[in-house]
Amino acid sequence: MAKSKGNRVQVILECTEHKNSGLAGTSRYITTKNRKNTPDRMEIKKFNPIMKKYTIHKEIK
Questions:
Q1: Per-residue pLDDT tens for 1-16?
Q2: CATH number for the domain harbouring residue 16
Q3: Distance CA 30, CA 21 (A)
Q4: Fewest CB atoms within 10 A around its CB: which of 15, 24, 51, 54?
Q5: 61 vs 51: CA distance, rounded Å
Q6: What is the pLDDT of residues 26-44, one digit of tens each?
Q7: What is the rounded CA–CA span in Å between residue 6 and residue 11?
């Protein structure tokens, strides 16, 4: 029987403020999360290089 790779999955985080501001480009980060410990979508404050400040980045599907 094949063993699964586990609960860790790769997720993409996208800036919410940048999307609403109308500026060109996007700020996205790729990270991993444990699906068992955090079943809902992640929200992390990350640096947005286009806006030059820390903003909330949410997990996208």
A1: 556 678 899 999 999 9
A2: 2.20.28.120
A3: 22
A4: 24
A5: 23
A6: 899 999 999 999 999 999 9
A7: 15
Backbone angles phi, psi at 19, to 5 degrees: -60, -40
Is the pTM higher than 0.90? The answer reads no
How far apart (Å, rounded) are the C-alpha atoms in residues 1 and 35? 22
Whether 28 is covered by a domain: the verdict is yes
Q: Which two tokens stand for residue 14?
A: 């996208």
Strands (E), the chain: 8-15, 28-34, 43-48, 53-60
Domain that holds residue 12: 8-60
Rounded Cα distance between 9 and 51, Å, is: 28
For tokens 């806006």, the residue is 51
Amino acid type, 19? K
